[in-house]
Amino acid sequence: MMTDQVNYAHDDLHKKFMDSDILKWTEEIDIIDVEMIFYRNLLNAHLQDFAAWDEINYEGLFQGITDVQSYNLMFKSTFVQYSNRLVAMAECDDLQCENYFLNEHAQLKERIEGHFSSYKIFKKTLLTHLKN
Questions:
Q1: Which domain holds residue 111?
Q2: Inter-residue contact 58 to 47 (CB < 8 Å)
Q3: Fewest 10 Å CB contacts: which of 14, 52, 79, 104?
Q4: What residues contact 14, with CB distance under 8 A and at least 6 apart?
Q5: Which stretches within 50-90 are classed as H helix?
Q6: pLDDT digits over 115-131, tens only?
C-alpha cells in the first residue's frame, strides 16, 4: 500500500513538472507571437522610410515572420493535445506507461527548444537588418 502512495506522489510530481513546462512554453510562444506582430509592423515602417532597401532581404524577413507564426500555431495546438493526453498519465499502473509519457515529454521538449533556438537566430538576423 505504501508503494502505491509513493508511486502516486511520484507520478503527480512528474505531471506537475510537465504541466509547468507546458505553461512556460505557452507563455514563450505567446510572447513570440506579439513580437512577430511588432517586427512585421516595424519592417513595414522601415521599408517605407528606406525605399532602396534590398527587396530580397525584405521578402525573406517577412517569410521568416510568417514561418515563426506558423510554427507557434502548430506548437499551441500540440500543447493542447499533449495536455489532454497527460490526464491519462494518472491512469498508469506500471513503469512502462509512465516512461511513455516521460519520453513523449522529452521529445516535445527537444522540438520546442529547437524552435526557440531557431527563433533566436532569426530574431538576431531581423534585428541586424533593422539596425542598419
A1: 2-131
A2: yes
A3: 52
A4: 89, 98, 101, 102
A5: 55-86
A6: 999 999 999 999 888 77
